[in-house]
Structures are given as structure tokens and as C-alpha cells.
Amino acid sequence: xxxxxxxxxxxxxxxxxxxxxxxxARRTAEVAGAFGVTLPVFIEQADRGVLLDVxxxxxxxxxxxxxxxxxxxxxxxxxxxxxxxxxxFTHTCFMITEYDGFVDVAAALNRLTxxxxxxxxxxxxxxxxxxxxxxxIARAATGRHAxxxxxxxxxxxxxxxxxxxxxxxxxxxxxxxxAPEIYRxxxxxxxxxxxxxxxxxxxxxxxLEEVVVTQIxxxxxxxxxxxxxxxxxxxxxxPDGYLPAVQEFATRHGIVFIADEIQSGFARTGAMFACDHExxxxxxxxxxxxxxxxxxLSAVTGRAELMDAVAPGGxxxxxxxxxxxxxxxxxxxxxIERDDLAGKARRIEELAMPRLAGLAAASDAIGEARGRGAxxxxxxxxxxxxxxxxxxxxxxxxxxxxxxxLVLVCGTFGNVVRLLPPLVIEEELLDDALTVxxxxxxxx
Length: 444
Ligand SMILES: Cc1ncc(COP(=O)(O)O)c(C=O)c1O
Fold this sequence. Notes:
- It is a single chain.
- It contains 13 helices and 15 strands.
- Helix 11 runs parallel beside helix 13 and helix 12 (390-402) packs across helix 13 (427-442).
- The longest helix is centred in the C-terminal third of the chain and has 22 residues, at 341-362.
- The protein has helices at residues 18-30, 64-67, 76-88, 100-112, 127-142, 159-164, 200-216, 242-252, 304-307, 323-338, 341-362, 390-402, 427-442; strands spanning 43-47, 50-53, 58-61, 119-124, 146-150, 182-185, 221-226, 256-260, 284-287, 298-303, 366-372, 375-380, 405-406, 408-410, 416-419.
- The mean pLDDT is 98.
- The protein is globular, with a radius of gyration of 21 Å.
- A 7-stranded mixed β-sheet has the order 4-10-9-8-7-5-6, sandwiched between helices. A 4-stranded mixed β-sheet has the order 1-2-3-13. Strands 11-12-15-14 form a 4-stranded antiparallel β-sheet.
- It is an alpha/beta fold and 444 residues long.
- Pyridoxal-5'-phosphate (PLP) is lined by residues 66, 126-128, 131, 154-156, 227, 231-232, 260, 262-263, 288.
């Protein structure tokens, strides 16, 4: 097994350095320009909180490959299981012949997702595929067609999931026509709720009820799909009471309540799933990202009777639940449970949140510091109001990148700097990264 990286930030060249620039020029010639890049730096090795680039810089990773490497990018438990599995076999296609890794991951998800009712799981490869299949299963199980999603939602880039995603640029522009029967309702975004954050839960819920009951007809609605903490939309934490109210409403009307936990799941928010914070038990939970410990794996876990409503052969895919990805997932789940990574995420919040709140109090360019566990964010605004300030977020991110700290920008208005460290990040490293972020904000 390869040597781990020393857990400290090292900046030896400009970032990106000369070797990365060279490689990036080659990429530009060879790779479709439609792929964006946050930081054009080529990575040589990664371990826990550190990314080593080809110029010898060690960046602090506050991105986790977008909430994927919760256990780190080279966790020994993942690496060794993957190595053993590739030596046994790389693929059979679970729809052709079976293997135990698929069943083990399904059993783990049935056990770990909220609720102790009878559940079953279907595995796929990407998050978007999990969303697509969640919708297919909900439609087949209910015999209904309408799907309800929120403002600021992000569910993926395939036709159905892109149609469900709220933001036009860059996700939808030029890619229409979109899938039909998708209805959008207000997201209870406390910071931006017109009548104040204290009204967000009740008013957003009233609007949802109105759209479902009077515009669509509740008997036509197959599913309501919600990210329990909205991710790409800006790390929006719903106000207390909203998710339980949606759950109750959906149950009352025979609508499948689907929690898209693709970004918020697997200990990221300080609980195994973000729904757990309010004891919400969705009918279906979608997982991806951190589930596979860095390898592509996604899942739909739902009430057994819903999952069995689709005829055999109705869902699946050549690579669905690939055995190497399943082996990696079992390693990742082992680490998450054994090392209490949910507790680690809460500790990250405890260390980082007061400093983010301090920045918000001291800078009139920050409208709000928010988040849950290790899913934390700063929303940038024009001084004196709430007008989104994407320029400030961009400048802060660029200043962090130049100092060797990888942060990401998100938000419908592109004005949110988000922090998604691996949950295994060492406290000293996190402290250093936050100091860099503080300096970047102060120099705005
Ligand atoms: C909440 C949510 N749903 C779905 C997706 C789509 O996942 P993937 O990119 O693996 O298709 C994402 C990806 O960022 C996500 O954050």
C-alpha cells in the first residue's frame, strides 16, 4: 500500500504550477470544452485532508470531490477491499449472475437509512441514475405521473434529473425540451424568505399544498423529491418542521416522499442521513457520492412494497452495483460506522462554525454563515443588503486556491462558498484552512 501523505499544506509554486499548466494545455486540446474545472491542478496523490499536485504542492481538500471522499481518498479499508475484489473479478453484471457484495451493500443501506420498516435497495452507478430510478419506481408503484421538486434543487444532468434541477445556466441552457410533468414549488430558504425566516417553513408548506392539491391534483402526484440540505443550490438547511410536514402531507395523500441524500448522506451533516436530524422517515432515500468511498455507486432504498412494485427487469443496468464499487462501499461504511464519522462531522461544525459566524459578523459582504456538520457555507451579498454577490465568492475562492486551500463555490446565484472537508480531516489542517479562508475574506 502506498505511503500516506504528511497532513500539512505545502505551497512550493504558483497554483496552478508549471507542470499542471502544461498538462492543462494538453487537456484543453483533447477533452470536450464543456467540462468545467474549479482549479486546473493535476493531482498525483490524495490522502485524508491533503491533495498532492504534480508540482509538489499539497492542497488542503475542502471539497472531497464534491462530498464523495468522506473517508478520505485512500482509506486503507477501501483500498484493500478494492484490491481483493479486482483480483477475484471486476464484473459479471448483477442481472446475469449474482455476487454477495451487491447484497451486502443493499443490506447495509436497508439497515442504515431512516426507519425500521421493511426496506429493499436497488444499486446503480451515478446519483442521477438513482434519481431517475427513484422516479420510475414511484411512478410504477403509484400509477401516477407528476413529480414535485423545489426551487434551488439540483438532481443531476440526465434528461429527467436536469429537468428536475432548478438552475438554467450551466445545467439546462440549450438542452431542452425538458421532461414533462415536473412541478416546482418554493424552497423554504430561510435567509431569502420574503416575510422572514420564521415564516419559511409554514408558508413554503402552504404553497406546496396549494400546488399539489389545486394545480396538479394530489391523486396525480407520484413523488415529492427534496434534498434534506440543498447542495448545489447553496447549502440551504430547511427550517425545523418543514421536512416532517412534507412527510406527513405526502403520507396523507399517498405520495412517495423521496429524500435525495446524495450529497447530504453518509455522515456528512453529522448524522448518517440529514433526515435523521428531525426523525424524518422518507418512503425512499437516494444515495450516491460518499456511498462508494470514491468509486461510482448509487442506490435507491425504499419501502419494500414500493421497491417490489416494478416488474423484474424493469430497472437495472450493465454496471449497476459493480462489484468493485460494492467492495469500496463496504470499506467506506465500515470506516463511517467504526470511527463515528457522524461525530467527526459534528466536531468539524463545532470547530468551523464559530469562525464562519465570526467572519459573517465582521464582514458586510457575508449575508449568512450556515450549514450542518461538515456541510458548511458562507453566502456573499452586496454590502448593506441581500443582493447576491457572486464576485465576492469568486474572489474568496480564488484567494484560497492561491494559498493551497481547495474550496468550491455553489448557489443558484453563484454567491456561496462551501466547505466539504473529508470527515477524517485532522483538526490542525482544518484550522490552517480556516485561517486561510479568514484571510481571504478580510482581503476582499
Ligand atoms: C443532491 C444531488 N442529487 C443528485 C446529484 C447527481 O449525482 P451525480 O453527479 O452522481 O449524477 C447530485 C450531484 O451533485 C446531488 O448533489
